[in-house]
Every structure is written in structure tokens, then in C-alpha cells.
Amino acid sequence: MTADWLDIGWLDQIPVRGSRTVPVTGGDEIAVFRTGDNQVFALVNRCPHKGGPLSQGIVHGHSVACPLHNWSIALATGTAQGADKGCTPTVPVKVVSGRVLLCRASALRAAA
């Protein structure tokens, strides 16, 4: 592992079809999601619509529903689905030997 990646813990610490948050500089958060098929995605924890906390939404397939107004956001791209328009910044994430790693520079830049 290099300094470019931030180790945020074990994959098992993120609930299946759920998320956890990681604080970043400036008071923002990155939401890290685990899907039913054990894929991991990371987004800035803000819906592009009204800024709702995506980490509190319901994960369905490879999307999350915002808890405020039910907008569906694609986890891979951060884009709103259907007729809704908007995009939430994504952060590169990977799993190595069961550990979840966030791209440190991208996490800081996305939340800025």
C-alpha cells in the first residue's frame, strides 16, 4: 500500500447493501457503499438535488436512493437516474486482501 490510498478498514465492517462514512478535511464526508454482490463504491455523501446524506439511503442493485426525496443515484458514476438530473462526485475505491482503500487525493478533491 502506498500513501496514495487511505485504508478505511475491513470490507466486513461495511454492511451488505449499506454504507459507512469517512470524514475528510473541511467537515465533508465520503460515503462508502457495499452492494449485495460485494462491490464497493465511494461517493461524496451529498445528493446533487438537495444535499441529502446518501449514506442514509437504501442501496438497491448498484444505486442508492436519497433519503430526502428518493432520487436514485448510480454508485459507479454518481449520476442521478431516470428523469432526475445531477451528479455527485465519485472517489476511486478498491479492496485489497479484504481491506477497503480510498484514493486519498481524489477523496480530498471530491469533497472540496
What does this structure look like?
- The protein is mainly β and 112 residues long.
- The protein has one domain: Rieske Iron-sulfur Protein (3-layer Sandwich).
- Helix content is 7%, strand content 37%.
- It is built from 1 helix and 9 strands.
- It has one helix spanning 104-111; strands at 5-10, 18-23, 29-34, 40-44, 58-60, 63-65, 72-74, 93-96, 99-103.
- A 3-stranded antiparallel sheet has the order 1-9-8.
- A hairpin with a 5-residue loop joins strand 3 and strand 4.
- It is globular.
- This is Nitrite reductase.
- It comes from Sphingomonas hengshuiensis.
- InterPro entries: Rieske-like_NirD, Rieske_2Fe-2S, Rieske_2Fe-2S_sf.
- Pfam families: Rieske.
- Residues 5-102 form the Rieske domain.
Biggest sheet character:
3 strands, antiparallel
Percent range of helical residues: under 10%
Spatial extent as radius of gyration? 13 Å
Q: What count of structural domains?
A: 1
Instruction: Supply the CATH class.
Output: Mainly Beta
Structural class: mainly beta
Number of strands: 9
Count of individual helical segments: 1
Strand order of the largest sheet: 1-9-8
Q: Oligomeric form of this entry?
A: single chain
Arithmetic mean pLDDT = 90
- What is the CATH-assigned architecture? 3-layer Sandwich
Can you say what the CATH homologous superfamily is?
A: Rieske [2Fe-2S] iron-sulphur domain
